[in-house]
Specification:
With 298 residues, this protein is α/β, with parallel strands linked by helices. It has eight helices and 13 strands.
Length: 298
Amino acid sequence: MLQPSFIKEGDKVAIVSTARKVSVKEIQEAILMLEKWKLVPVLGSTIGKELHQFAGTDQERVLDFQKMLDDKEIKAIWCARGGYGTVRIIDHIDFSNLLKNPKWIVGYSDITVLHSEIHNLGVCSLHAPLAIDIHKGTKASMTSLRDILFGKEVEYSISSSKKNILGECQGKLIGGNLSILYSLCGSKSSLDTSGKILCIEDLDEYLYHIDRMLQNLKRNGFFDNLSGLIVGGMTKMHDNNIPFGKKPKKIILEIVKEYGFPVVFNFPMGHIEDNRALIMGSEASLRVDADQVTLKYI
């Protein structure tokens, strides 16, 4: 895997929106944070644009992202907002210059489309808070973003959940939003999970739909040769009038019970305040003990 160069003070960081509309005011704290880090924020033309729920037309979002991707002075592209829309433009983006001059693509949620596509091209990316998230993110999540971008060694240790499946594994980190991973099945952006550590999270879904998506991933072979599974926030889940009868942890444990790889719940990633940055595509080791979980890069 190609890993982008770490950034340094004075470098330019672009902020664009590949999906939902966003105003300059909504990302003002992100702009100020970059300036505090002595970086130079460069706002894309999609910031402030509006077409219904989108940050401009599909073509406008393609052109904005492409411009920042091709500009050698831009060292990272920070996606401003998720929502929906990245899949509408992914097949119209030319990633050839990313392969020649890798740069960090940063974001999560709908940005899982980009992470998946870029992983299949052999380039690492950064699953991390969106620019619009700065006001609600924890200090630890923002510190993790800064530390990785600037090349500081990062390791995560968290308390172990009673529901975890214990064990050790190693592999490249992949994944992101469960709904997006599900929607990419059958496309060229779908992931090969063999020997890798899959990360999943989701927001605002019905419990039966969590089960349906995981059943689909299982039928697509996602768990057959998986090295390990990291489960982040399963936030604001819904149920029907007739209860589904299982919460996300139980749904996941029933799906993976035949495989034997380690499973971590409550990892700080996803639509939660403590959304730590993860290098997608990087080789990592995961140790799941009864009292502690440790994730470190190799």
